[in-house]
Amino acid sequence: MTNSSTKQQIEQNKILKTIKEYAIMTIGMCIYSFGWIGCVLPAKSTSGAASGLAIVISTALHNTLGWDVKIGTIVLLINVVLLIAAGIILGWNFGIKTIYCILALSMSMNVWQDILPADDFLHIDRLLSMIIGGVITGFGVAITLMQGGSAGGTDILAMIINKFRSISYGRIIFVLDLLIIASSLTVGFSIDAAIYGYIMTLVFGYTVDMILAGNKQSSQVFIISPKYEEITRALNLELGRGATLINGEGGYTHNQTKMVMVVCSNRETQAVMRYVRNIDPNAFMTVASVMGVYGKGFQPIKL
User: Fold this and answer.
1) Cα 109 to the chain's mean position, in Å?
2) Pairing status of strand 256-265 against strand 244-249
3) Contacts 24+ apart (CB under 8 A), 114-123
4) Would you kindly state where each structural domain of the chain is located, as residue ranges?
5) For 122, which DSSP code?
6) Looking at residue 213, what is its pLDDT?
7) Phi, psi (5° rounding) for residue 285?
8) Mean pLDDT (10-residue bins), the chain, 303 residues
9) E strand or H helix that includes residue 13
10) CA torsion 107→113→21→75, rounded to 10°?
11) Helices then strands (H, E): number in the chain?
């Protein structure tokens, strides 16, 4: 194959990959918006993020001025304001994927609001509706994040706050979501609606974490034993799992030894422990969960 044809093939692969990413991000934002319009809105409740704030603002405009502004339009306006503020404070370095996802989210929300009936078309309990909404929105956001996209909203505001305060990013998001849900009480939402909103926030976060990291979680096992050679050989040959030997020294005896480090899937952890126990019942072991193991035998490195 000539260099020109190779370059052409690489360019085609890049184009196909980009099309795939944007197609999945579009689907993700459509699923995310369906969770809000199809589950949260009929439940007469709200939750965090820009979408939750949009429901609060929409309700306030309807109650005070009689204006019926679509949720997606308000989400777009919120994100535009945040993007402008972030551009001025942080610099205009936002990715095109974030802007695309914001537009796709706003448009799909308005489309769903036109298509779906305003009442509870699912005919299920409010709490159950919010839980299902948390799962659906979490799934939509997760598959979008996997393609490098973002729904904006409180994520942008968190970046602005981090510019001036060294606060955990996750803590900022959590506090902002709590404030948004609490603000719903000022526009006529009931206490139980706010509680349902908090429940949805937890379900949403759990769903995103499980999809993004659940299939990548593995165990990291450290084994200290004088029979490290036999343990390593058993893990290599019988379990088919690689191991790394690390030089160690006893803190009290100062005896030199080798530590065996093994990274394996969660389901293989018990098998590793059984092999070690059979060889050296007095071996010292620590087992820790690790998130995101990349390389041969695990997840490919994708950036």
Assistant:
1) 21
2) antiparallel
3) 116/37, 116/38, 118/41, 118/42, 119/42, 120/42, 120/43, 121/38, 121/42, 122/38, 122/39, 122/42
4) 3-213, 217-291
5) T
6) 67
7) -135, 145
8) 72 88 95 94 90 95 92 95 88 81 95 84 84 95 87 86 76 89 93 94 89 72 94 87 90 89 83 90 90 67 59
9) helix 3-35
10) 50
11) 10, 4
Report the DSSP beta bridge partners of residue 221: 262, 287
Query: CATH homologous superfamily of domain 217-291?
Result: ACT domain (3.30.70.260)
What is the β-pairing status of strands 256-265 and 217-224?
A: antiparallel
What's the rounded Cα separation, in Å, for the pair 36 and 56? 13
User: Alpha-carbon dihedral of residues 174, 108, 24, 140, nearest 10 degrees?
Assistant: 30
> What value, to the nearest 5°, has the Cα angle with vertex 294 and ends 288 and 299?
105
Q: What is the reported pLDDT for 149?
A: 85
Please give the DSSP secondary-structure letter assigned to residue 214: T
Which residues partner with 217 through β-bridges?
Answer: 291
Contact 114, 71 (CB under 8 A): no
The residue whose two tokens read 């004088």 is 226
pLDDT given at position 38: 92
Query: pTM score > 0.90 for this model?
Result: no
Region of 190 (left: φ > 0; alpha: ψ -120 to 50; beta: rest) is beta
Tokens standing for 287?
């087992």
Phi and psi based region of residue 152 (left: phi greater than 0; alpha: psi -120 to 50; beta: remaining)? left
Whole-number Å distance between alpha carbons of 63 and 66:
6
Which of 41, 29, 42, 193 is CA-nearest to residue 98?
A: 29
HSE value, Cβ hemisphere, 13 Å, CA-based, for 128? 5
Amino acid at 150: S
Whole-angstrom distance, CA of residue 81 vs CA of residue 61:
18
Residue whose token pair is 């009931």: 190
- Residue 303 pLDDT: 53
User: Between β-strands 244-249 and 217-224, what pairing exists: parallel, antiparallel or unpaired?
Assistant: unpaired
Handedness of CA 130, 135, 140, 146 (dihedral sign): positive
